[in-house]
Amino acid sequence: MTETYLYTTEKTKEISLNVWCVFPAVYNFGMSALGYLTVSKYIDSIDGIFVERIFNDTEKTYIRQESVDIMTFSLSFELDYLGVLAILEKYKIPFLAKDRDETSPLLYAGGPVVSANPEPFAEIFDFIAIGDAEPNIKQIFETLRDNKEKTKQEKLEILSKIAGVYVPSLKKEDYKVKKVASKLDLCVSTPILTEQSFFSNTFIIEVERGCPQSCAFCLTSYINTPVRFCPYEEIIEQIELGLKYTNKLALLGALICAHPRIDDICQYIIDKVESGMELEVTVSSLRADYVSDKTLEMLHKCGQRTATIAVEGGSERLRKVVNKHLTKDDILGIVDKMVKHGFTGLKMYGIIGLPTETYEDLDAFVDLCKEIKQKYKGFVLTPSFSTFVPKAQTPFQFAKREETKILEKKNEYIKKEFAKIGIKARTSSVKWDYIQTLLSRGGRELTPYLIDVYKQGGNIGAFKSVYKEYEKNGDFINSDEYVLNAKKLDEELPWDFIEYPRSKDFLKSEYTRLISL
Out of 73, 179, 204, 486, which could bridge 131 as a Cys pair, Cβ 3.0 to 4.6 Å? Predict the structure, then answer.
């Protein structure tokens, strides 16, 4: 596979630490994952360390397994744990940290899933990063390099003193770990390009991190605090770097249109196109009340004909409940702008089963799309829905989730109502969303169950059959207690030991405020 490195390293020390940087899925997905590639680059830039990227479909490795000192894992989604166990099984590494001896590599995990609630997976890993990688990754790996001859326990004791490092085996009743955040004064961008990645030869630039809107269900809004914008000059420098190797750019961020100089960034790209350069530029989803004409002009000139916005709730009432202050006029306004700029379609994301939702809210979503369709003939709408998943570290971590049968009925209802107006709506799997909620709100007691699920195939059927087996043997895990029931505000939650800028008391007050609207 052809790979183009966009960075160089200078090694002056003899290699003394070997690292497998693991992505728990296939190569083409991993090579489009900016966070994973960036961590690999950071480790590769440290003197005296050799790093090799490993994927679920890796056939041959450069570093011999017995020479690997550290394995790092990047978890973006709860179900990534299945890929982690697949890698461990492939290389015959015990699943649980307590079962691995001094000859086994240390296992290190990072990513949004384990930063929010690492507990269902805590007994698998030796240490876990809570928060951004930039503040401490150099210190972590220099510490491991310089203390290679120490015992596993001694290494973990030293690592536990680094800010943002969680060592599950050392957790006691009063254990606390504080989330760390980078300044984002330097842009994060694609360090390695390849045609074989899911976003083939696309140079990704992180424009901002976090989101100032703070929707009550949104993990990004609450774990990526404070909101940070990459400096304009840095973004321009990265655009120039990327264009030396490819004509495909992607601007990444939860709310890129809130960047204080987004119009200047877009104009810079427009000038490139108007000078004769052929560019393809994509962005993550747009916010209807933030999108400027300049942004739409740039996207259209760079080949985009559709865009994506997250509407979440169908009615303004429900959007206020989730703290998404997006009006019907805002949504109609972006469609009007898009049509004027030559766009032909809009993808709209929604969530079914949000707290206080009624069928009137679902009808409001359909009515909104009906109005757009009637006003703008030929403009294609593609609504997609997932069901509500309460996430740790958000105000809605306390909220109940509706029963599976109710949500499946709502899914069928929304598809049927959209079909009446000639629009095909897509919906997620309610059962998989149930599993996602289980992993989001569970604790260490789930770990044996999750391992057994993996051993039985890791599919929906396995989650069900293993559950029944546990119930029959008296090892009962009442999954509905994790998934469906609302949490008491004074209830101790598995992830309470993690200290975020927005405290649990803040989440309580915000949940109470919003749910009463």
Answer: 179
**Quick count: other Cβ atoms within 10 Å of Cβ 165?**
22
114-146 tens-digit pLDDT:
999 999 999 999 999 999 999 999 999 999 999
Q: Which residues contact 221 (CB under 8 A, 6 or more apart)?
A: 210, 211, 213, 214, 215, 254, 394
Cα(205)–Cα(223) distance, integer angstroms: 20
Residue-wise pLDDT tens digits, 469-503: 998 888 878 899 889 999 999 999 999 999 999 99
417-457, pLDDT tens digit by residue? 999 999 999 999 999 999 999 999 999 999 999 999 999 99
| Interatomic CA distance for residues 439 and 447, integer angstroms | 10
Beta strands in 24-164 (DSSP E): 49-55, 70-74, 106-110, 127-129
According to DSSP, residue 189 is labeled B
The rounded distance, in Å, linking the Cα atoms of 399 and 511 is 8
- β pairing state of 49-55 and 17-23: parallel
Q: Say which residues have a Cβ less than 8 Å from residue 462's Cβ, sequence separation at least 6.
A: 453, 454, 456
* Burial of residue 115, with CB atoms counted within 10 A of its CB: 0-12 exposed, 13-18 middle, 19 or more buried: buried
Task: Please state, in angstroms and as integers, the Cα–Cα distance from residue 431 to each residue in 34, 108, 402, following that order.
Answer: 29, 30, 12
Is the pTM higher than 0.90?
A: yes
Cβ neighbours of residue 38 closer than 8 Å, sequence gap 6 or more: 133, 188, 191
Residue type, 132: D
φ and ψ at residue 476, rounded to 5 degrees: -75, 130
What phi and psi, each to the nearest 5 degrees, are found at residue 30? Answer: -60, -35
Nearest to 267 by CA among 301, 229, 306: 301
- Residue 269 corresponds to which amino acid? I
CB 36 within 8 A of CB 21: yes
Compute the CA torsion angle 465, 469, 472, 476 (nearest 10 deg): -100
